[in-house]
Fold this protein.
Amino acid sequence: MTIRNLDALLRPKSVVVVGASGRDGTVGNIVARNVASGAFRGAVTLVNPRRPVIAGYKAIGSLAEMKQPAELAVIATPADAVAAAVAEVAALGTRAAVVITAGLTAEQRQRMLDGARPHLLRVQGPNCIGLMLPGLGLNASFCHIDPLPGGLAFLSQSGALITGIVDWASDRGIGFSHILSLGDMADVDFGDALDYLAGNVEAKAILLYVESITNAQKFVSAARRAARAKPVIVVKSGRHAAGARAALSHTGALAGADAAYDAAFRRTGLVRVQGLYELFEAAEMLARMPRLKGERLMILTNGGGAGVLAADRIADHQGELADLSEATRRALDAVLPANWSRANPIDIIGDAPPERYRKALDIVLADPGCDAVLVLNCPTALASSTAVAGEVVAAVTARRTVTSAPPSVVAGWLGGPSGEAARKAFAAAAIPVLDTPAAAIDGFMHLVEYRRAQTALMQTPPAVPGDVSPDAARVTAIIAGVLAAGRTTLSEVEAKDVLAAYDIATVPTTIAANPDDVGRHAEALLAQHGAVVVKILSDDISHKSDVGGVRLSLRSAAQAAQAARDMLVKVAHVKPDARIAGFTVQAMIARPHAHELIAGISVDPTFGPLVTFGAGGTAVEVIRDTVQALVPLDMGLARDAMRRTRVIRLLEGYRDRPAADLDAIAAVLVRLAALAARHEAIHEIDINPLLADEKGVIALDARIVVVDPAVTPRTEMAIRPYPAEWERTMPIAGIGDVEVRPVRPEDERLYADFFSRVSVDDMRLRFLMARPDVGHAFLARLTQIDYAREMAFVALEPDNGALLGVVRFVADPDYVRAEYAVLVRSDLKGLGLGWQLMQHLIAYARAEGLQQLHGSVLGENATMLGMATELGFTVAVDPDDRALRIVTLDLARVDRSIA
């Protein structure tokens, strides 16, 4: 991942247009006109070999005539000239280019990248409408109008969609900080742009139009970082594209491209909307009101019907209406007609004049139980909608002067042209306004969903319950045997052995070669169980019940043997080409009130392994009550996935049915995720049914499909898993053996005791301030790290698990350099713990291919500077702050005996 040189793309000081055209109506002409005629204050150069004047502006004949290279090149030449233009501007020193030209062949595209790479020139496009930076007055696109400056960033793969949203936004006074048409994303993609915008103060919120993701790991990492900093709203097209391919298992058939994207958006904290109109609603809300202090909504309306529609809509979204307190009710009684609704929604009656709106809104805004207010207005002949808007604006403005965190206000102004003046008044006061109650609620709920996503990102998930010790070696041996035999599908017995190796309970199962053998196996099982189940065994039959290949509740050996004979006849008729390997015989599990669930693994070509969970049974693909979640999982994420199904309401218990063991179900999902993460050969897992009740869970049937990763590599996991291979036990003189491992989210609970044993002076030396705010949000950022771009190792006392010290680095987005920090409990200083932690971090950084570690150390911190020097760091005075020292370690030259 890299944002290297993106500053030249997104904050250029000079621009050159290569391919500027003198022919009206051409892309080169429109781009040249937009760049040259705008408010951009930097130098603009137009290049055309035949025309000295383009669109009324002076042009030069070639790039060689430029006295200084431009930071940004905009290229609109024919396709066969793009590569040469990119190479030429790159060689001159230009650091970024927007390639608008469409129609490049694969060979032309590669030559373009080859010309850019040696000079680290970044390329946006090709096949895009360009770049717009309203804050700089730069319109380097062929969009027909200039967008207004503002706080929204918009990234889109569709150029046409950009022109549409710019048109819509201009009419509503909504402005943008950045508009990027990403086009074919040959170089700069969503991950790069999100990474840059996450730290950009001008972009208050980000809108995405996504057709496809080209680098899932980069996207997920950058999206998570961006969503923690600001709202990110995404619309994904192609939701119903043919993604549910033919598969050997239910989980493979249920998974599709859209399910994977949805799982990725949820995991990263992005808020997904389903269409263009919802994206417009989100833009309206984010432009005026990017954050909420809470979710409790009060509805104030002059139309009872409109209020009811709004209340219904918020119920559809599982939103929350604020309770009307008795004090607020009495205050409203004093200013409203006797027949007002006396409840939320607050119907102030259809004849409400502007003054009634103002008095009621003043009272509602002062209610401490109200986080936001939706003000609805249905136009009548009795009161001017414009005058009502003026009173609403006045009430909101007055409240903002009283408190720094007043309730947010959304306006729903019904009616057409008659409401235009009101909408302008709201826009001027930074109050979002939408056209219908439903649209207003939808827009409000986008912000609620963002707030919930933020909460989810900051949650501290619980650890997996119980003592789980997976036998990974056993699984590796089983898979190796299957692949060596030329098979890709494990037998049911092998599949259940794999699950058992990861502590997933299964029913005892044996393999019988023929019907007589079935009878003998059944007799042995019936000695301990009341009944048995017989199933056909064939790699050619995916769903055994579809061909009559399953018989239940067989209570004698003779019945079991006869069932097997009947199966052979039925299967030979229904699927005559199937190769029969025998039968499986297993105990019949009698749990009459248990729920049939499905759990499994599939592999998405973009995001890698996904866990599937939902309602199971033979009708699973008809019911389609399933969700997917990205691997890896913890208990919190597993429970969140479960809550997004309909079957969860049954699992939580109803009437006389007790609740199922939800922790046991979640643990199965976590263990499946660990199984998929550990064993790259696994392509599909299907547990159906997974029986669940208050006693726990048990897998009745299982199917596992594997591939040889050396022949068919599996798509990389979008989220890097916990790196267990970097766990160590280190002997520390004066302390004893210390457990050193990567930090985990559940380690947050350890920090309160740890910080209580760090002196104020040591905290100042580490954080360069007296003491940071060590609340939940701060600690969540320390413990819920993205192993793909940062690392933290914690040192733990082996007996009680107390936190003794921590070392970490956060890499630059290009993963070349990383900033490190180390902190040890004050009572343990001088014992060598910090030295050992630094050695471990350096070894990890080198293994990751990082080139440099650096840090900022106060000049008075002699202990840290001494250790850094001994470890091979160079020390220099920070030119911007002479109290600081910049310490730098060249990892390519580090003494390996130290690391």
Summary: DSSP finds 29 helices and 38 strands in the chain. Residues 595-706 form a domain with the D-amino Acid Aminotransferase; Chain A, domain 1 fold (CATH 3.30.470.20). The two ends are 26 Å apart (CA to CA). The longest strand covers residues 682-693.
